[in-house]
Amino acid sequence: MERYLDITKSVIISSPAGSGKTEKLARRYVSLLHGGSEIEKILAITFTEKAAAEMKERILHILENAYPELFLKVKEKIPLMRISTIHAFCLKLLKRFSIDIGLDPSLDVMDDFNASLLWSESVYECLMDEKNNPDLFFVMMKDRGIKGWDSLYSLLDELHSKRPYPERILRENHPFTGKEENEILELYSRCLKRYSNKKLERHLIDFDDLELFTYEALVKNPEWHNILYSFDEHTDHILVDEFQDTSSLQWKIIDKLTEEWRSGIGAKRDSGKLPTIFLVGDDKQSIYLFRGANVSVFQDAKELFSEWLGNEYYFEEIKENYRSLPAIVKFTNSLFEKLMSPAIRDSWHTLYTPFEATRQGNGNVELILIEGLSHTKENREKEATTLAKRIQSLVGNYEIYEGDKKRPCAYSDIAVLLRKRTHLCIFENALRMYGIPFIMVKGIGFYDEPEVALLRELLSFIADPLDDYSLFCLLKSPLFNINYKTLFRIIAKGNSPLIDKIESVKNKKLKNAFNLISSWIERSKYTPLAILLEDVLSETEGWHFYWEKQRHANIKKFIRLIEQYESQGFSIIDIREKLIKARQGDEGKANINTEGMNAVKIMTIHAAKGLQFPMVFLPSLDEDIVPKSSPVVIDEEEGRISIAYEEDSQKRKKINHFLIRKEKELEEEKRLFYVAVTRAQDFLCLFGVLKKEKPPTGRLAYITNSLGILKNGQINPEFNSLNVLTESQIDEIYSTHHSSFITHHVPYKLFMKEPIYTEPISYEPRHKWQDVTEDLSIKTTHGEDWVLLGKIFHMLFEELSKGIIGFNEIDKRTFILLRNEIYIKDKLERLKKIVNNDFEKLVLSGYLQDVIFPIKDSYAELPFILQRGNTIFKGRIDRIIVRDNTANVYDYKTFPVKEKELPELLDNYRFQMSIYRSATQKILSMKTKGYLLFTHIPLLIQTH
Asked: Which candidate in 83, 295, 583, 755 could, as Cys together with 447 as Cys, close a disulfide (CB 3.0–4.6 Å)?
């Protein structure tokens, strides 16, 4: 038995690329089951949902084949398998203990796009709130000059992208110095508070909340002991895959969950059970620093486990490589032994350990050097052409292994891995030119794809027929193919809208375009947009231009998105605004099942992680490695979070925080290159541009400097462990060996070279959104305490109305909700007393029973959207009770009032109540009555 299968020990495995680390985790899981562990008491954490599904499939496959009797025994319990991402685990824990930790049990998780929109809205509103009270916002904007808003927004956005670190600084009071850092965090704190309130109102959280709320529930919440006890009762073993991609906060969560296990005490050990932790990963493949992954955690865990567990812990470093042929393994070892051997090693440096090839055969590694020109784009075009020629010369000619036998390679065996997407279009066009079928896998930039941009412009124009830019893009697109010269000549005639100008021209092509476009505008009034888009592509034969599977799938995805927006009640104007904002995100291209497709796969190195390919092409190795330049750096070392801020890029070069961050990013670039190289099984082809009289740059310099390939700028004839070729040699090989597999050649002119873009004319949206539920006047009139109390009362009322809590649980629930917001005991007790007193008055008045308690045909916190003219009102209605075919609408006012203030308050809230009643009437289709319930007095007043 291999040592890592010893279920009496906790294990950390350092498992390099191609060594089968996921297989080892699966076999460890099976060993636990074989040793008598219950399937529902094993928790396995993976990095992605896809990895979780594959892990489950692999475990069941091993069970079915190696332990059929055990498989039959656990078969009925398969739904109880706890294999998930860390985010899914956190969400489940938060929902399970939601009442105890002060969260809404019905909470949902926003996707990144909607979270981004809500954050932008929060920052914008904070700015607007300050316009009558110039404060920190305007001081900081003034310091930034004419680009104040853009600069300030970018800074806040950059800080927000580093969550949960900024929040932890604010919540945990980490020490830091510097006036500017203080100002930034104060500013960010205001925006974050509004953002948090908006999420709370919508019963939503975002992905960053999942980990932060879980950690705080385990550490700070008064119920933390019960949560840990429950987890311990239901979990005997934890397994973590891809441990090198763990963030500091994720490690803190795992650390806290297993704290008692490592102490050598506890109910589990007393009962004779030995809980274990199994971590598997490869620190050389830690490539998610930008997402918060901390490679130091891997080394820290090894040291801590040895200290904590002693003889109950075992560490193993795997040295076998089952993926790559010897030539690729030899190249990898030769290169990275030199690249990853720091003289002085910090915890975030990576130390390379060579591995050994287990496959039989030779394999091949090529480095193709391109003679550089003066412009980067020209260099990439030469490189892309050479890459396409090399592919065509290999397909059908070069033999790869399939099992123990060889066969000629096909397009589907090849993957082109890119570090960045900057020149993706150039490589795609080169492959098209040489008739090479390809597919972009896991690509982003969906909204910038030409076919998607075209449909976006079409919708923009239908939404606003006076939008000359969108019409211009539409006319010059493949749908109409009107040339620039003709369009510019028409545009130059007078100042009337472009649509009017093309109506009056005699050009037959333009006349036909006008008639077709006019019919689309007319049909948009009664035809769903999704159907209209399908009609447009059919009537113009648009599908002919977008025959490629990826483009076709992108169009289908876009049409589905429009269909979803329409089903949610959005108008074409709303959809246009959403599409404009969506371009700022990283929406992925449509997914395509590549199984069975004979096509070259193009993807980023990040997307290729965890995959393997018979033949790998790595272009653009000469691209400069430029660490991200940001005015804000947040870092964590030994549990202490630090922040540094500096706008001046030159000054940043002298500040230690920025220098360390730069070194970390450069170190990660080496690991990223390692990931790229180790995807190859049989054949690895590297490309780089050599510029005249200039030393090699980027990852090309890694190779030339580490392996001594060049001498005095020329290829070293003594170097023979790598096949170094030039583009002229590739031309010669291509002329005699190019593939006969080409099945079609598409005219290059059919494709647009560049995507078409549109930008919003101004930041101000066409439709004005107004939240009628928010009442900011409470803060200025009654102070912060009553803002907080208002939030607490509304949550308690909602949970009572929905039956989530009973009357006897109000006191405990109040304490939990206040404890999550207040850490000063005296203040907490004072506010809790106010809540208790107000509830006593509500009981005596009868309003608690008549309005707030659960009632048949009633609603609590009902969300709505109501459009009146150009204003869209949104909010939540506190309470609706249907009696005698009448919807009685109640709005809670929880702040203190005096009797003499009531007439003015009724007048102030008349408009708000009219919106609530109109929305209710629209939703329930019945007559309505409106009431204000002043809960502090208490008093119920009907509004008119």
From this structure: 583
DSSP codes, 213-234: HHHHHHHTSTTHHHHHHHHHHH
Residue 831 to residues 99, 792, 822, 841, Cα–Cα distance (Å): 20, 10, 10, 16
Residues 6+ positions from 122 with CB-CB distance below 8 Å: 191, 192, 194, 195, 198
Residue 439 above 70 pLDDT?
A: yes
Q: Euclidean distance between the first and final Cα of the chain, in Å?
A: 81
Q: Which helix or strand (DSSP H or E) is residue 710 part of?
A: strand 710-711
Segment 675-692, tens digit of pLDDT:
999 999 999 999 999 988
The pLDDT of 731-752, averaged and rounded, is: 57
Dihedral (C-alpha) 504, 508, 509, 514: value to the nearest 10 degrees? 40
What average pLDDT does range 893-909 have in this prediction?
91
**Predicted local confidence at residue 755, as pLDDT:** 37
Contacts of 893 (CB under 8 A, 6+ apart): 905, 909, 932, 933, 934, 935
In the block, residue with structure tokens 């049909």? 523
Contacts for 118-124: CB closer than 8 Å, 24+ residues apart = 118/195, 118/198, 118/199, 119/157, 119/160, 119/191, 119/195, 120/581, 121/198, 122/191, 122/192, 122/194, 122/195, 122/198, 123/153, 123/156, 123/157, 123/191, 124/763
- What's the CA dihedral at 421, 424, 425, 431 to 10 degrees? -170
pLDDT tens column, 450-466: 888 888 888 888 888 88
Mean pLDDT of all residues in 223-240 = 88
Contacts of 492 (CB under 8 A, 6+ apart): none
Rounded to whole angstroms, how far apart are CA atoms 542 and 477? 10
Average pLDDT on 246-262 reads 88
Residue 780 structure tokens: 């200025």
Mean pLDDT of the chain: 84
3 state SS of 401: strand
Contact of 935 with 893, CB cutoff 8 Å? yes
Quickly tell me which residue has 């290159």 as its tokens. Answer: 673
Q: Which of 328, 97, 35 is nearest to 229 (CA)?
A: 97
Top pLDDT among 859 and 263 is at 859
Residue 383 pLDDT > 90, yes or no?
A: yes
Q: What percent of the chain has pLDDT over 70?
A: 88
**In this structure, are residues 793 and 838 in contact, taking their beta carbons and an 8 Å threshold?**
yes
pLDDT at 136: 57
User: Which residues, other chains included, contact 485 with Cβ-Cβ below 8 Å and sequence gap of 6+?
Assistant: none
The pLDDT score that the predictor gives to residue 861 is: 87
Give me the helix-helix angle, 698-707 and 326-339, nearest 10°.
90
Phi, psi of 494 (to 5 degrees): 70, -170
Picking from 420, 523, 521, 430, the residue whose alpha carbon sits closest to that of residue 474 is 521
Q: Pseudo-torsion of CA 502, 506, 507, 513, nearest 10°?
A: 40
